[in-house]
């Protein structure tokens, strides 16, 4: 798949970046698409985000909750 040039952004060296994460515990009925949209909205509104990359993923699951990491 080829990406449009306008979607590419060069990020600084890894040593110049602070990487942070949050984990939230949600019910299994929580929609990942809704969580992803809200995470994107919050990131885009933050002056602290360098706009290089982000990811939302499920990192663990129990019988009661799913653990989502941004």
Question: What this model shows, in words?
Answer:
Helices cover 19% and strands 19% of the residues. It has one helix at residues 32-44; strands at 23-26, 57-61, 66-69. A three-stranded antiparallel sheet has the order 1-3-2, with no helix packed on it.
- Secondary-structure element sequence? EHEE
Q: Beta-strand percentage?
A: 15-25%
- The multimeric state of the shown protein is single chain
Radius of gyration in whole Å, from Cα?
Answer: 15 Å
Average predicted local confidence, pLDDT: 83
Portion of residues in helices?
A: 10-25%
Structural class, please?
alpha+beta
Shape: elongated
DSSP helix count?
A: 1
**Strands in their spatial order, largest beta sheet:** 1-3-2
| Total strand segments | 3
Tell me the span between the first and last alpha carbons: 25 Å
Low-confidence stretches: 1-8
Topology at a glance:
Blueprint: E1 23-26, H1 32-44, E2 57-61, E3 66-69
Antiparallel strand pairs: 1-3, 2-3
